[in-house]
Amino acid sequence: MSAPSFAPSAPIRAADDRLAARLRRQVGQAVGDFRMIAEGDKVMVCLSGGKDSYTLLDMLLALQARAPVHFELVAVNLDQKQPGFPAHVLPQYLRERGVPFHVIEQDTYSTVTRVIPQGRTMCSLCSRLRRGALYQWAADNGVTKVALGHHRDDILATFFLNLFHQANLKAMPPKLRSDDGRHIVIRPLAYCREADIAEYATQRGFPIIPCNLCGSQDNLQRKAVSRMLAEWDDQHPGRCENIFRALGNVSPSHLADRKLFDFAGLGREDVEKEWPEHAEPGDNRTSIRPSIHSFESE
């Protein structure tokens, strides 16, 4: 039985069609580039009620309708028992869309507010508790892929947060195995810009549910980094895109991580072999470079 169409109240304009087509193309490319979804997968779409997760569900439903492989979708929401949370919104929306869904009820709100002192950032503990509940449901219900709504800007922000505050070159990968080894986590929106997602959510009229726990904390470092990226996007078009492309174009021999490149084993014979007498100045060839997987964003 096909799902009923959820259409925006206003007439669809050509620009709206182009935006939707661009997002679908980017999601399809990310799914293909990283082999995110395979025949017979049961994909759990983590639905928070925010613009990103609504768009993720929309894009995966469109992909499911035309993909060359068959896969299931189930939307899962974690009701964290935040005061004033409109528990009826997501079930009503998902029933109208004809999407299989499940709501996990777990009072993580009380735990977070009890453990974290007032005024301190709650996101870290909240996300760990939320992730644990979602992963457990996935393990108990035959889920093979866990889909999260992180987009390109989330990935870039995480990269800079790790760089600035953890002295670590690490971001959110489009696909990974969870720490406990039981789940494959995918981020189909990895190639999508947040601005495009926000515009698409407005066009579609999604019933957005704001987060009143961590979303209202204005002093988050992530928000500061997001503002920086937004300024770059505005003042230097293409800079963020280049940084994102760089995450998939890594040269370990030109960094300083001894675990990724054998600097100690790089001897004179390697230099002579790679740099013949006729080599031109500025030639960047290297003799030992581990095989890496790269990806393009367009």
Automatic annotation (TrEMBL):
- GO cellular component annotations of the record: cytoplasm
Keywords annotated in UniProt: 4Fe-4S, ATP-binding, Cytoplasm, Iron, Iron-sulfur, Magnesium, Metal-binding, Nucleotide-binding, RNA-binding, Transferase, tRNA processing, tRNA-binding
Motif (PP-loop motif) positions are: 48-53
The yes or no answer to whether the keyword Iron is present is yes
Q: Where in the cell is it found?
A: Cytoplasm
Pathway this chain belongs to: tRNA modification
Q: Name one GO molecular function term.
A: sulfurtransferase activity
A GO BP entry? tRNA thio-modification
Co-factor remark: Binds 1 [4Fe-4S] cluster per subunit. The cluster is chelated by three Cys residues, the fourth Fe has a free coordination site that may bind a sulfur atom transferred from the persulfide of IscS.
Please name the CDD domains in this protein's record. Answer: TtcA-like
Stored InterPro entries = Rossmann-like_a/b/a_fold (IPR014729), TilS/TtcA_N (IPR011063), tRNA_Cyd_32_2_STrfase (IPR012089), tRNA_thiolation_TtcA_Ctu1 (IPR035107)
Write down the chemical reaction(s) this protein catalyses: cytidine(32) in tRNA + S-sulfanyl-L-cysteinyl-[cysteine desulfurase] + AH2 + ATP = 2-thiocytidine(32) in tRNA + L-cysteinyl-[cysteine desulfurase] + A + AMP + diphosphate + H(+)
According to the record, the residues making up region (Disordered) are 272-298
| Cofactors demanded by this protein | Mg(2+); [4Fe-4S] cluster
This protein's record includes keyword tRNA-binding:
yes
Main localization of the protein described in the UniProt heading: cytoplasm
Q: Where is the tRNA(Ile)-lysidine/2-thiocytidine synthase N-terminal domain?
A: 42-206
Q: Which residues bind [4Fe-4S] cluster?
A: C123, C126, C214
- Similarity-based family: Belongs to the TtcA family.
Q: Which NCBIfam families match?
A: PRK10696.1 (NF007972)
Q: How does it assemble?
A: Homodimer.
What biological function has been recorded for the protein in this entry?
Catalyzes the ATP-dependent 2-thiolation of cytidine in position 32 of tRNA, to form 2-thiocytidine (s(2)C32). The sulfur atoms are provided by the cysteine/cysteine desulfurase (IscS) system.
What other note does the entry give for this protein?
The thiolation reaction likely consists of two steps: a first activation step by ATP to form an adenylated intermediate of the target base of tRNA, and a second nucleophilic substitution step of the sulfur (S) atom supplied by the hydrosulfide attached to the Fe-S cluster.
This chain's protein is named: tRNA-cytidine(32) 2-sulfurtransferase
State the organism's lineage: Bacteria, Pseudomonadati, Pseudomonadota, Gammaproteobacteria, Lysobacterales
